[in-house]
Amino acid sequence: MEIWETVVGLMWYSSKFVFSAILVLFACYCIYIRHIHQKFDHIPGPPRPSFLLGHLPIIVQELRKNTVLHDKLLEWAEKYGPVYRINGLHHVTIVTVDPEATKEVLMSPKYPKDPTVYKRLFTLFGQRFLGNGLVTVADHDLWYKQRRIMDPAFSSSYLRGLMGIFNEKADRLMVKLAEMADKQTPAHMHGLVNCVTLDVITKVAFGVDLDMVNNNNLPFPNAIELCLKGMIYYIRDPMYKFFPWNRGFIRNIKEAVKLLRRTGRAWINERKKAMESGEDVPKDILTQILKSAEENKFDDDSQELMLDNFVTFFIAGQETTANQLAFAVMELGRHPEIMERLKAEVDEVLGKRQEILYEDLGKLTYLSQVLKETLRLYPVAPGTSRWVADDMVIDGIKIPGGFTAVFDTYVTSRMDRFFKDPLKFDPERFAPDAPKPYFCYYPFALGPRSCLGQAFSQMEAKVVMAKLLQRFDYSLAPGQPLDIEDIGTLRPRSGVICRMKQRD
To answer: Is the CB of residue 215 less than 8 Å from the CB of residue 46?
Structure first.
């Protein structure tokens, strides 16, 4: 009995000690947060709803309301000026729309991608996701090594040779739309262009022909959407994973990640065997991914890195272009006068010739303007962030080092400080003789970490839009909402439902 009482006494004292230690640690953490507040509170910013969580409750509230978070950032930029702070626990984020700061930070390799954001995407709810792929890797040397290996797959000479695939995949969509026009079936354009861009990226990047336009029961679009939605909850709501009612959705997200990486492993192994047997293989992204692992002799780490880049290109190469195309179709449906001018240009350049040549793309100048204006109003990848370790001055405000700097092209593109009547869809902003926006328009980011695939994306978008306008008249189905859905990337919420009619 005495032994039992001794054991109980020791347990009570130890639990009391542990509880006291936790209280002391929490008190120290609160003191540290207070120190961070005092260090950065001279910078303008919205009131914090929580001492501990800072502005996170506002961000989570916006997420649950299913609104566009970037509209809140725009509201704060208009109210608090070109540089303001956001607090979250002990972390400070500085949002700036100042062009000089944008130029200084984004154009320099001195400022790495913010590890607090991009390292979180190494996994998704515990399942390895983007890892150390080209988009998420923060280490400059590792990024530069990967980028140099990938560059040949995006050279102008190689892209020129892809026109046949762009034409072929876009033609499959045109056949599908012709059938829908004949049957007077409404066309859900976002879903259809999603299939086209997925067909293109899998063929061009990985040598696989999915034919999603005619075979839409494959699981990839749903897996990509689950991953994108999972990214939003994972990054913006730190408490999301702790609620039991979210476990089913989280399980589906993890299965989607596994599907993409399992697919990548199968395709990589198939290409690896082809290369080892001496077969001719294209200089596509998959070949370059394999080359990136040669130095490591295909060990476990290099295998995972290959899968990181596979998932990165699989998602990024499809999602962004599809959303841009859907928004362009939506805006042309809202502005028939712009659509008519665009049809006239397409007719002049192409006539009745259905194959689009590389040389034609440079002649479609007004189409380029329309696509750029689409990305101004609807930048599908709206923002980027960098880690700033040293003190810096932005718009006359001295900011102590050790913060995340956020640059949001959605915000700058919708401010009349930079664009007159910013909510008006006006392709003339990008006319050849119009003044160039000064570091306030960057839908593909800027500097050394800008999007590697931007030329690829815009070539693909031009081919699809030119063929669509050459062959069809269309109008937007009445009554559909024409607003934005924010799932990390921006996409049209309605899916852009159109009534199609073949042109004479």
So the answer is: no
Task: For the chain, 504 residues long, give each residue's pLDDT as a single digit of tens.
Answer: 555 555 455 555 556 666 777 888 888 989 999 999 999 999 999 999 999 999 999 988 888 888 999 999 999 999 999 999 999 988 999 999 999 999 999 999 899 888 877 778 888 888 998 888 888 888 888 888 888 888 888 888 888 989 999 999 999 999 999 999 999 999 999 999 999 999 999 898 888 888 888 877 778 888 888 888 888 888 878 788 888 888 999 999 999 999 999 998 998 888 888 888 888 887 788 887 787 666 545 455 678 888 888 888 888 888 889 999 999 999 999 999 999 999 999 999 999 999 999 999 999 999 999 999 999 999 988 989 999 999 999 999 999 999 999 999 999 999 999 999 999 999 999 999 999 999 999 999 999 888 888 999 999 999 999 999 999 999 999 989 889 998 888 999 989 999 999 987
Q: How many helices, marked H, and strands, marked E, lie in the chain? A: 18, 13
Q: Please name the residues in contact with 273: beta carbons below 8 A apart, sequence gap of 6 or more.
A: none
Instruction: Annotate 235-253 with DSSP letters as a single string.
Output: HH-TTGGGSGGGHHHHHHH
Tokens of 337: 């006068």
Question: Is there a binding annotation on residue 30?
Answer: no
CA distance 128 to 124: 6
Half-sphere exposure (Cβ direction) of 221: Cα atoms closer than 13 Å? 20
Residue 427 C-alpha from the chain's centroid: 23
Q: Backbone phi, then psi, for 180, in 5-degree steps?
A: -70, -35
The residues, any chain, with a CB within 8 Å of residue 353's CB and separated by 6 or more, are none
Which of 395, 389, 440, 489 shows the shortest CA–CA distance to 112? 389
Q: Which CATH number fits domain 21-502: 3.40.50.300, 2.60.40.4070, 1.10.443.10, 1.10.630.10?
A: 1.10.630.10
Q: Which of 385, 259, 378, 254 is nearest to 322 (CA)?
A: 378
Q: What is the dihedral of CA 207, 209, 212, 215, to 10 degrees?
A: -150
Return the structure tokens found at 284: 């596509």
Residue ranges of the domains in the chain?
A: 21-502
State pTM to two decimals.
0.90
